[in-house]
Amino acid sequence: GQNIDQPTEMTATEGAIVQINCTYQTSGFNGLFWYQQHAGEAPTFLSYNVLDGLEEKGRFSSFLSRSKGYSYLLLKELQMKDSASYLCAVRGPGSARQLTFGSGTQLTVLP
Amino acid sequence: DTAVSQTPKYLVTQMGNDKSIKCEQNLGHDTMYWYKQDSKKFLKIMFSYNNKELIINETVPNRFSPKSPDKAHLNLHINSLELGDSAVYFCASSQGWGQGYNEQFFGPGTRLTVL
């Protein structure tokens, strides 16, 4: 099975940098996704990692270490609109390769 | 607009009733999903269909029955609703499944409240 851990809540200041960590224990691994979900809205895709290393996309970057079962999402130049829940999801093995989501990290950006 | 759409957005009903939620995607995707997000915000996969064929069927009570009349539609019917069914149900779609960078696009969600 899959077990995914992320902090429940984080707070940061506008303009700052924040790193949201995700650790996972899985019976197989076929990629890790980060999604953003604003309150009352649908999750939206942010990033995908399948190989070790850093993927950069504007203000957002995501890092993966498969040997450590670890990923982080780095958000730079925080804006108020970045206040949201950030969901880490791991795609598993087998023919279905379904996504298993963590419970999400609620980020609050303060002025 | 190209998107994943769901109806209704809100559904309030009594215990014991039967209800359906509809989902449509016009993205040309092959694969569609139903997720349940509970009050603790855990997003859990319920079902997945690829080209109208069921490929994921998690441990979900058989009161829940998905139906995919075609690739663009995946509906969810729930019989004999229970209080614990109260949650937000999200439909999603992706181009293919299990390979590479095939992100899932989510619908706006249906907030189901069972009284």
Brief summary:
Chain A has strands at about 1-5, 10-15, 20-25, 30-35, 45-50, 55, 60-65, 70-75, 85-90, 100, 105-110. Chain A is mostly beta strands. Chain B is mainly β and about 120 residues long.
What keywords describe this structure?
heterodimer; A: 111 residues; mainly beta; six-stranded mixed beta sheet; 0% helix; B: 115 residues; 11 strands; 55% strand; globular
Describe the structure in your own words.
The complex is a heterodimer of chains A (111) and B (115). Chain A has no helices and eleven strands. Chain A is mainly beta and 111 residues long. The mean pLDDT of chain A is 93. By secondary structure, chain B is mainly β. Helices cover 0% and strands 55% of the residues of chain B.
Chart the SSEs and their pairings:
The complex is a heterodimer of chains A (111) and B (115).
Chain A: E1 2-5, E2 9-13, E3 18-26, E4 32-37, E5 44-49, E6 53-57, E7 60-65, E8 70-75, E9 84-91, E10 99-101, E11 105-110
Parallel strand pairs in A: 2-11
Antiparallel strand pairs in A: 1-3, 3-8, 4-5, 4-9, 6-7, 7-8, 9-10, 9-11
Chain B: E1 4-7, E2 10-13, E3 19-25, E4 31-37, E5 43-50, E6 53-57, E7 64-70, E8 73-78, E9 87-94, E10 105-106, E11 110-114
Parallel strand pairs in B: 2-11
Antiparallel strand pairs in B: 1-3, 3-8, 4-5, 4-9, 5-6, 7-8, 9-10, 9-11
